[in-house]
Amino acid sequence: TVAEIKAKGEIVMGTSPDYPPYEFIATVDGKQKAIGMDISIGERFAKDLGVKLVIKQMDFDSLLVGLETGKIDFSISGLTPTNERKKSADFSKVYYQADQYFVVNKNDKKLYKNFHSLAEKK
Ligand code: ARG
């Protein structure tokens, strides 16, 4: 429960850091660390609760089992809801939906017929 988590002073987040830019391993100050958008969201979530965030790195396929067994308190890992997953896991409202584009100058429109032409020299 939230009361138990607050009493413990920490919340355990499971994530599979092999999915940039959501979560991935990078060297920060000489150390290997899981970073990415989901990690930042988890950190903010823990901060709002007033507890420390503990990140458990695990295989993507182990996340739901981790939730069922109580090994982790929650997961943020680019998870998409499916009917199968919803049998054991309770999904939040969507926190991110992508709708992004490559952009070039309108005057150069004719130079860029497709993605490959972005790599070619003018
Ligand atoms: N959105 C896809 C899914 O839920 C892929 C997520 C992969 N995430 C990861 N951290 N490897 O199946």
Strand content: 15-25%
Structural class by sheet pairing and helices: alpha/beta
The CATH class assignment of the domain at 2-86 is: Alpha Beta
Number of helical segments with 4 or more residues: 4
Give start-end ranges of low-pLDDT stretches. Answer: none
CATH topology of the domain at 2-86: D-Maltodextrin-Binding Protein, domain 2
Specify the CATH homologous superfamily of the domain at 2-86: Periplasmic binding protein-like II
Largest sheet: 3 strands, parallel
Distance between the termini: 59 Å
CATH architecture of the domain at 2-86: 3-Layer(aba) Sandwich
* Helical amount: 25-40%
Walk me through the structure.
With 122 residues, the chain is an alpha/beta fold. The chain has a domain at 2-86: Periplasmic binding protein-like II (D-Maltodextrin-Binding Protein, domain 2), CATH 3.40.190.10. It is built from four helices and six strands; from the N terminus they run αββββαβαβα. It has helices at residues 2-8, 37-49, 63-69, 83-86; strands at 10-15, 18-19, 23-28, 31-35, 52-57, 74-75. The strands form two sheets. A three-stranded parallel β-sheet has the order 5-1-6. A three-stranded antiparallel β-sheet has the order 2-3-4. Strand 3 and strand 4 form a beta hairpin. It is elongated and about 60 Å long. Arginine binds at residues 16, 18-19, 22-23, 60, 77-80.
Question: What's the short story on this structure?
Answer:
Helix content is 25%, strand content 22%.
Layout of SSEs?
Blueprint: H1 2-8, E1 10-15, E2 18-19, E3 23-28, E4 31-35, H2 37-49, E5 52-57, H3 63-69, E6 74-75, H4 83-86
Parallel strand pairs: 1-5, 1-6
Antiparallel strand pairs: 2-3, 3-4
Bound molecules: arginine.
